[in-house]
Amino acid sequence: MSNAPKGQPVAVNGVRYLWPERPVVVVCIDGGDPAYLRQYLAEGAIPNIARFMKRGFSVVADGTMPSFTCPNNMSIITGTPASRHGISGNFYLDTATGQPVVMTGPELLRGDTILAKFAEAGARVVSITAKDKLRRQLGKNLDVAKGNVNFSSEFAAKCLMKENGIERVLDFVGMPQPDIYSMELSLFVLEAGIRLLQARRPHLMYLSLTDWVQHKYAPEEAEARRFYEKIDGCFGRLESLGAVVALTADHGMNDKSNENGEPNVIWLQDILDAEFGRGDTRVICPITDAFVAHHGALGGFVRVWRQGKASARQIIDVVHGLDGIEQALDRETACRVYDLPPDREGDVAVISAANVCVGGAAKEHDLTGLKGHRLRTHGGVAEAKVPFILSAPLSDEYRLKAGAATLKSYQIFDFAINGTAQ
Asked: Whole-prediction pTM value?
């Protein structure tokens, strides 16, 4: 345990963070493609975000690749790329067992989280996520017995003081338990954050939303606009309580349907089986999680592992010839270009174009949840651009830092804490 006195800077994964002079609230708008902000800023529908951008700081940053939820949330909360923290998807293949492994366990996360290290130094911290799949990694080494809070709105009704640092959450927030497939799942996160900011005034707060709305609705659709109007109101309330509010996203979102409204899919496992024979390769779709109704486990990035005679070069040659594939990279190149952990990377990484998604075998994907809606999903380079917005202006030092290179979304805590200090 750290013996750092309260009020002193805290070092986390090689970055020195000043002690916050006022509460810092970082919000990850899951699926928050910059296109939504462009649409609603032009319409005047999000006045608080517009004010942040005018008076504070705003830029489009690079997210972590692949552009999925788990890698990006872990990058944000550790302040590091995936090569450092090790979480490179929702799933990876354990080559020792031949089985896919869910990448949500805290034991798989390498390094420290910014929240845990600040809490260790005596700060009060809060972590709230929409889906429980992120909660344990976000709360790695976070001692909730010392007044810190870590829970998901998915299981808000089941929160226990011993496990989450809070109980009777529905009464506290004044909302019913939200459905997993609803905008209310995200709104509950924000309302809970507002009430905790009022009641406990934590030093640091991380609020991670869910992308159900963005998967389902394009920027021009009324339900998406309604969602952004609501979250914009919450952001304004957080700022009015004296917090520095920092907004980013884990990934963007693109329409990947054809002119008939059907998913525009490359069934890669079927193609490789036809070329090399069944069992020679294994395609893993790292977007896969327990909630696939809104994307059918289809995204813009998949991994291929060799299990037979086909070489990585042979696989790449086949994949490169497919219309709609943007990149097919061997492990070494993928790790170098996208800063990924080699021990959790496939033999070949495959990235699709903005309007195309990649799946495994067609029979393994359940697309019934997509009926009535166009497929909107993410994972590729086309969805790796994200907003990076601060409600407070930057210091001269950090304005220069921002202009020196393209910012990464995982720098958001650094800029929100160190860059806005007066």
From this structure: 0.95
